[in-house]
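[09:14] KT: can someone run the structure on this one? pasting the chain below
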Amino acid sequence: MLHADTLRTIGRVLDREEALQVTIDEAPREIAVTWDTRRCAAQSKAFRWDELEALEQGARESRGGERIAPSTRLQGGWTELLRTLGQELDQQEAGPSTIAGDRTWLTASWARAGGHATQHYTANELWTASGRRAIARAAFA
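[09:31] RB: done, structure tokens below
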């Protein structure tokens, strides 16, 4: 599963939970997600990889190929923010990663050939990248 798909799926859960801050840790058998909300602190859930794949497949089927205009996406939502971060990680050919932050900034650390890397992202950088990719996709549609 690509980082973009995995993180978009986790983002949907975080949007439903109204998460404010998150930590996401990828491991060989599961992804551990911890988040805080206004209602309570430090909720967590571990997702097995096969469980995430089933959630993503269900979401893909419910979308039915429907395209959503960038202007109608939930600005500030975890789904699009994490999908875009996942696309960045896929572009970097990142291995297992750890992500922490809130809706204004995220820090990602990941394994890669020859070591590891860490990158800080502002939400504005990720929203700009998302917009560029949406325009590029529309040009090919």
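[09:33] KT: thanks! The chain is about 45% helix and 30% strand.
[09:34] RB: yep, looked fine to me
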